[in-house]
């Protein structure tokens, strides 16, 4: 394994022009307004686990189209609230697993909502339990080309809407301080995190870890690994559809959400990452908060952890501990 993208010196200056539709903000405003015509209808029931230091609740709420979305809500047992909350989104085709299998945020004194990704949860881990009842035209195996014919029908329109609704849901749960909600995720979860960062203006922190779903045009040129390669295979067959596909993808590109973000952020990047090439991560990082920059004086805090010799696994436990320490600092927690 070796470097396969730009050098670090080039990456820190890499701020490409990324395709952005003129109606990007209107598209997402209408999408979220439509979702909010459905009552959030949050349900929560405590579940039994063998863990003695946390309480876990099985939570569900209504996301895109009023569809129910599942999540585990975990809090430290015997700790008085209201607590800051971390909403976590999951990597590609993983699910929320069994209750209590993700304890680090609760162990660090946070409320934690681990959100299923609709339709996914059958490739690794302990599985997911949230379906995606919406249909799709012809697509390659996987999720990247489901509904890619049009922005309205694309899979990630539904996923990102669910994610925004997850933030709204956690703010209603007992023991949560609704003014102190952060979002976090790895890979696909990092891409979802960036989408929420651009769509929810009052988060306290954003932590995208080796984020996927950024700078699609670059990724499709240089990346031959799944999941990006699902789109490559689709376009190898649907040859005349390149511009239409890139148009759809521009509505879900993490770079366009990153521009609109305002919360402090901690990214991570792995310089030997063959799944999410580092130039796609730096495209989002270098644009992060740029809609709110004043000349050369940024008013949006952003930090990045660089793992020079790692592939897509990134920092793993090193990054997990770095996130907790960083978020404690942002919130002024000892």
Structure overview:
The chain has 334 residues and is α/β, with parallel strands linked by helices. It has one domain (8-331): Rossmann fold (3-Layer(aba) Sandwich), CATH 3.40.50.1820. The protein has eleven helices and nine strands. The protein has helices at residues 8-11, 24-35, 104-107, 155-170, 188-199, 216-222, 228-237, 242-250, 254-260, 278-287, 317-331, and strands spanning 43-47, 54-62, 68-76, 83-89, 111-115, 176-186, 205-209, 265-270, 302-307. A nine-stranded mixed β-sheet has the order 1-2-3-5-4-6-7-8-9, with helices on both faces. The relative contact order is 0.15.
List the main descriptive attributes of the protein structure presented here:
334 residues, 9 strands, 19% strand, globular, AB_hydrolase_fold, AXE1_dom
